[in-house]
Design goal:
The chain is globular, with a radius of gyration of 16 Å. The chain has a five-stranded mixed beta sheet with strand order 1-5-4-3-2. Strand 3 and strand 4 form a beta hairpin. It contains four helices and five strands.
Length: 103
Protein backbone atom coordinates (compact mmCIF):
# COMPACT_ATOMS: atom_id res chain seq x y z
CA UNK A 1 0.00 0.00 0.00
CA UNK A 2 1.46 3.41 -0.96
CA UNK A 3 2.08 5.93 1.84
CA UNK A 4 -0.68 8.38 2.68
CA UNK A 5 -0.13 11.86 1.26
CA UNK A 6 -0.91 15.18 2.90
CA UNK A 7 -1.28 18.64 1.41
CA UNK A 8 0.44 21.63 2.94
CA UNK A 9 -2.98 22.93 3.91
CA UNK A 10 -3.58 19.78 5.96
CA UNK A 11 -0.11 19.85 7.50
CA UNK A 12 -0.36 23.52 8.51
CA UNK A 13 -3.34 22.68 10.74
CA UNK A 14 -1.10 20.63 13.04
CA UNK A 15 1.04 23.29 14.68
CA UNK A 16 0.65 23.08 18.44
CA UNK A 17 1.14 20.75 21.39
CA UNK A 18 -2.21 19.03 20.79
CA UNK A 19 -1.27 17.98 17.26
CA UNK A 20 2.29 18.56 16.08
CA UNK A 21 3.34 17.52 12.58
CA UNK A 22 6.63 18.33 10.88
CA UNK A 23 7.97 17.81 7.36
CA UNK A 24 11.47 16.43 7.02
CA UNK A 25 12.74 15.54 3.54
CA UNK A 26 9.18 15.58 2.14
CA UNK A 27 8.02 13.05 4.73
CA UNK A 28 5.39 13.92 7.33
CA UNK A 29 5.88 13.02 10.97
CA UNK A 30 3.33 13.30 13.78
CA UNK A 31 5.62 14.06 16.71
CA UNK A 32 2.86 14.97 19.17
CA UNK A 33 3.60 12.00 21.44
CA UNK A 34 7.34 12.76 21.28
CA UNK A 35 7.08 16.36 22.53
CA UNK A 36 7.77 15.50 26.18
CA UNK A 37 10.69 13.23 25.23
CA UNK A 38 12.50 15.51 22.77
CA UNK A 39 15.98 16.24 24.20
CA UNK A 40 15.90 19.80 22.83
CA UNK A 41 12.55 20.54 24.48
CA UNK A 42 9.05 20.59 23.06
CA UNK A 43 9.31 24.27 22.08
CA UNK A 44 11.76 23.41 19.30
CA UNK A 45 9.34 20.97 17.72
CA UNK A 46 6.31 23.23 18.15
CA UNK A 47 8.20 26.11 16.54
CA UNK A 48 8.86 23.94 13.45
CA UNK A 49 5.44 22.30 13.36
CA UNK A 50 3.07 22.64 10.45
CA UNK A 51 5.91 23.32 8.01
CA UNK A 52 9.12 22.01 6.50
CA UNK A 53 11.64 21.48 9.29
CA UNK A 54 14.31 19.83 7.13
CA UNK A 55 16.91 22.59 7.43
CA UNK A 56 16.42 22.96 11.19
CA UNK A 57 16.64 19.18 11.62
CA UNK A 58 19.81 18.87 9.57
CA UNK A 59 21.46 21.95 11.11
CA UNK A 60 21.34 20.30 14.54
CA UNK A 61 23.15 17.21 13.29
CA UNK A 62 20.84 14.52 14.65
CA UNK A 63 22.35 11.13 15.42
CA UNK A 64 21.69 7.85 13.66
CA UNK A 65 19.61 6.83 16.68
CA UNK A 66 17.45 9.95 16.30
CA UNK A 67 16.91 9.17 12.62
CA UNK A 68 15.89 5.60 13.51
CA UNK A 69 13.50 6.87 16.18
CA UNK A 70 11.80 9.11 13.62
CA UNK A 71 10.50 6.09 11.73
CA UNK A 72 7.88 5.37 14.39
CA UNK A 73 6.38 8.87 13.92
CA UNK A 74 6.20 8.73 10.11
CA UNK A 75 2.61 9.11 8.89
CA UNK A 76 3.01 9.81 5.17
CA UNK A 77 4.46 12.03 2.47
CA UNK A 78 3.92 15.59 1.32
CA UNK A 79 1.55 15.62 -1.66
CA UNK A 80 3.48 15.73 -4.93
CA UNK A 81 1.99 19.10 -5.91
CA UNK A 82 3.27 20.66 -2.65
CA UNK A 83 6.76 19.18 -2.42
CA UNK A 84 8.63 22.03 -4.05
CA UNK A 85 6.63 24.74 -2.30
CA UNK A 86 6.81 23.39 1.25
CA UNK A 87 7.47 26.41 3.49
CA UNK A 88 10.93 26.37 4.98
CA UNK A 89 12.21 28.44 7.86
CA UNK A 90 14.28 31.43 6.73
CA UNK A 91 18.04 30.98 6.59
CA UNK A 92 19.90 33.06 9.14
CA UNK A 93 23.45 32.51 7.94
CA UNK A 94 24.34 36.19 7.97
CA UNK A 95 23.79 39.41 6.15
CA UNK A 96 23.65 39.54 2.37
CA UNK A 97 24.48 43.24 2.38
CA UNK A 98 27.86 44.32 1.11
CA UNK A 99 30.16 45.99 3.64
CA UNK A 100 30.58 49.76 3.32
CA UNK A 101 33.24 50.91 0.89
CA UNK A 102 36.66 51.27 2.45
CA UNK A 103 36.60 48.02 4.40
Amino acid sequence: MPPKTFTLEEIRQHHDNKSCWVIIHDKVYDVTKFLDEHPGGEEVLIEQSGKDATDAFEDVGHSTDARELMKQYYIGDVAEKDKSSAPKPPKTTGSTEEPPKGY
